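Example 4.3 (complexes with small molecules)
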Amino acid sequence: MKTAKPAHAPQTQFAVVDDCLHIGGMPLTRLAHRVGSTPFYAYDRSLLTRRVQYLRSMLPAQLSLHYSVKANPMPALVQHMAGLVDGLDVASGGELRVALDTPMLPAAISFAGPGKTEAELSQAVAAGIVVNVESTTELQRLDRIGATLGIRPSVVLRVNPDFELKSSGMKMGGGPKPFGLDAELVPEVLKQIAAMGLDFHGFHIFSGSQNLKAAAIIEAQEKTFELAFRLAQHAPQPVTSLNIGGGFGIPYFPGETALDVAPVADHLHASLPRVHAELPQAKVALEFGRYLVGEAGIYVSRVTDIKRSRGELFIITDGGLHHHLAASGNFGQVIRKNYPVAVGNKMSPGEAGNASVVGPLCTPLDILADQMALAHAEIGDLIVVFQSGAYGLTASPTAFLGHPNAAEVLV
Ligand SMILES: *Cc1c(COP(=O)(O)O)cnc(C)c1O
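Answer. The structure with pyridoxal-5'-phosphate bound is encoded below.
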């Protein structure tokens, strides 16, 4: 019996005209001239806008939508996102500066992440943003900084929940974690906050990331609400802010299919009246990184050499793991799988044969595609890695081997 090989989810978000991929209304070949050099990342602003509009059309109107800047901190992109979402979530002082350059109001910017330095906390307090507190040390530091600056810091407690988001690409809650305060310790910490010069806003409960299963997300959201209700009973002030995390994934690998948002949205529609009854002043927020930006971006490199080794075809490009660690399989993958890859100026595979796409780094880890069916490529052709709008360039070891950096454009 023949079983079909699992395939990548189709890349239908970009138009293909005369066999050439278009992005931002422009043929890729022309965009390469416009950028002036390869490799580069290109992000399509109309796709970013459409994704946010789609989510808003599904989700309850009273839910806030936040963008997690960590997924892609390119300033022009963050600027664009700031005009679409209700809040920006940052995870470093550097990301905070990018967020503060946008028109987003400081009160709608939050700063999470373990190990914030004194300098970062002081930056955050002076800016008037919300700090998602990850430890009691951070609380004490904020109390001191607030007293020094004469500003009452706005804080949200990040809670390490007593459950996890099942079947997640990355688990960020449940069990022992460096993120947040363990849920069972929160009632005691809330007592301490009551005696400090801090403005308590609420809770941030983030249980996981990169999830494609609606049922798992619904279950985690249900538990998140229950946990928030329990903890709120110990709060020194009414909860005005409840960030329930995000976790929506995008399909990267063969056999993965897009998340069905409808059941998650239905469940949120059904849950919000109860949330409003329990926490009448709470603004509920969802935070997304890759789901908002991941599918809107491509990584483009140029074929520099083609060779055959013992029967296998190798397409060598000027791009590789130094710009796109995730596509090389070295960013959290256990078993290496291919991202969706194509020859961008020859989109119909034609006499497709199997080929591997590798970069110029002198290491066997530098693979962009391992034995994929690709169109017949020639030197000068453009190789496209799809699903590259999140955790691309900034999640890559750009200094490794000293090759030139990649450009980034928002089109
Ligand atoms: C990284 C991170 C996110 C974004 O995760 P995505 O998978 O990109 O949506 C959201 N919230 C927190 C707290 C994070 O650390």
